[in-house]
Structure formats: C-alpha cells, structure tokens
Specification:
This protein is α/β, with parallel strands linked by helices. About 40% of the residues lie in helices and about 20% in strands.
Length: about 290
C-alpha cells in the first residue's frame, strides 16, 4: 500500500506536501506507529495530517459512557442504492446544498473516505478498503450512539445518511455480492424515509426487493427513486467483469423515468439535472411536512 519497488510513495508524497507548507488529507491510513516522524514534523510546522478512521479506543470510550443520549428526534433521510458507482454521494451533496440554501440546519453521516472535505459532520468509512478495525456487529450500535450524541449537541433540523454500494445481495449463494455493511448501516441509522438510487438496467424485481427490505428492516418507505444519466454496460473478459458507462440521451432518460414511475408509483429523478434535484427536494419536504 503506497509502496513501489521498495519506495514508500505515501511517505514521499507527505514529505513533499510538508516541505511546501501544505496540510495533508489522505485516503490511505497514515498511522502514528508507522509515520510518527511525519506527524511530528507536521505539528512542528503547524500543519495537519488527516485520514479517516475510527480508532478502537474511541469506540470503547463511546460504548463505556454510561449516560445514554436521548433518541434522535428529527427526521433522518437515508440514501441507499442497488449497486456501487451510481451517484449516491453526488445526490447526497445536492440534497445537502439545497437544504442549506433554504435555511435548514443539516447534519450528515457520510461513508465516503473523503466526505469530510465536503463539510460532512460524521464520516463512517465502511466502503471499499475500509480502515475500520472493529467488528461488523459493532457498526449499528456505534452509528446509533453517534447519531444520538450529534443530534443532542448540534440540534439539526434534518439528518442525511448515505450508504455505500448495494443494499441487498444479488445472490445469497455468492459471498462477493453480500451487503452486510450496508444492512448494518441501515440498522444503525434507522432512517424515517429513503431515496433509492437505481441503475437503468436493474431488474424490476431487484428494485422492488430492495424497497421491501428498506421498509422491513428500518420501517422506512422509499419516497423517491433516482438514477444516473449513464447506463452501465457489464461484460466479462479474460475472467474479469468490466463495467463501462454509456451516456444516455435525454429521450432515453425520460423513458426510463416514465417506466419507473409507472411501475413503482413514486417520483423518479435524474441525479445530475437541476430539475431532478429540485424535484427531489420538493418530494422530501412534502413528505416530512405531511408526516
């Protein structure tokens, strides 16, 4: 990791940044145990080295605090998906931006390792290459406790939570399609309502099963479907599965939206369009106003 032909490229990159009086935000871990000298140099120069992790001692302190925070008493909106690489994070940022613009106080849990760079309050990096060292069955209680504490201290009007990858497995007999971290995230955040990001090529039954799972586990209705303007083309070559996106035409996007709305009876939006983002916000606000 970060090492090429006996050269520590991560170390070299950090040394270069510090030499140029820059802060460092890394998607790779930079533990004190390995890079203590660089952390010391950064402190000396008033610079910061940051990477996302939740150390075990932090988890232990959280669980050992006897005082239980009060339950979350504000709306929690979840963004989930049917697969990876769909635009879920883009949608979360758009929702956050529009809610802030309307004067709402927004709290947010993000699962992307770079989420903090976008102003997201709490980062739970449980996706690909996750640095988390504590067991999966601690994920839900950690998220629940953290949400409670943040809600009590910051008093937001709404909390946005966004998961990684898919929500349910494509095939329970294929372990590489299992989605246990996403299900633990769902159980720990317990949204009141969900937006489900789908692919234009997803089978109707798989979308329906995902919607039913969100309701069954979190008792949360799916109030909106969202899709990208790209269509995934999946092919297998040399024993590897390759996914290549194809830009859809406006007519194709409109057809997909119309078909999904007819099939599921809920609003559907295209993630990157201004019209779609506005429709998403209107749907969210209308739902919570009526709840």
């Amino acid at each position: 990791m970060g090492v090429c032909k006996k050269k520590d490229l991560l170390r070299e990159a950090i040394e270069t940044a510090l030499a140029n009086d820059c802060d460092v935000f890394s998607l790779l871990p930079i533990p004190e145990a390995t890079y203590g000298d660089l952390h010391a140099v950064a402190r000396q120069r008033g610079r910061h080295i940051r990477f996302e992790d939740i150390p075990l001692d932090h988890v232990a302190r959280l669980f050992n605090t006897p005082l239980e925070p009060p339950p979350v008493d504000v709306p929690v909106l979840g963004v989930f998906g049917t697969s990876a690489q769909q635009g879920k994070f883009t949608l979360q940022l758009a929702l956050r931006r529009k809610l802030l613009a309307q004067g709402y106080r927004v709290a947010q849990i993000g699962t992307e390792p770079h989420a903090r760079l976008f102003g997201i309050d709490i980062v739970f990096p449980n996706g690909y290459g996750s640095p988390l060292q504590f067991p999966l069955d601690w994920h839900a209680p950690w998220l629940d406790r953290t949400l409670r504490e943040h809600c009590a201290s910051s008093r937001p009007d709404i909390i946005l939570v966004g998961s990684q990858s898919g929500t349910i497995p494509y095939d329970v007999d294929a372990p590489d399609t299992h989605t246990l971290p996403s299900l633990a995230f769902l159980m720990g955040t317990r949204p009141d309502a969900c937006i489900l990001v789908v692919n234009s090529i997803d089978p109707v039954d798989y979308i329906r099963d995902t919607i039913h799972t969100l309701r069954a586990i979190a008792k949360a209705p799916t109030i909106l479907l969202a899709l990208s303007d790209k269509e995934k083309h999946i092919r297998t070559a040399y024993g590897r599965t390759l996914v290549s996106p194809r830009q859809m035409t406006p007519e194709e996007i409109a057809q997909r939206i119309e078909k999904l709305e007819f099939t599921f009876g809920i609003p559907v939006v295209e993630i990157l369009s201004d019209e779609g983002q506005q429709k998403a916000i209107e749907t969210v606000l209308k739902y919570y106003a009526a709840a």
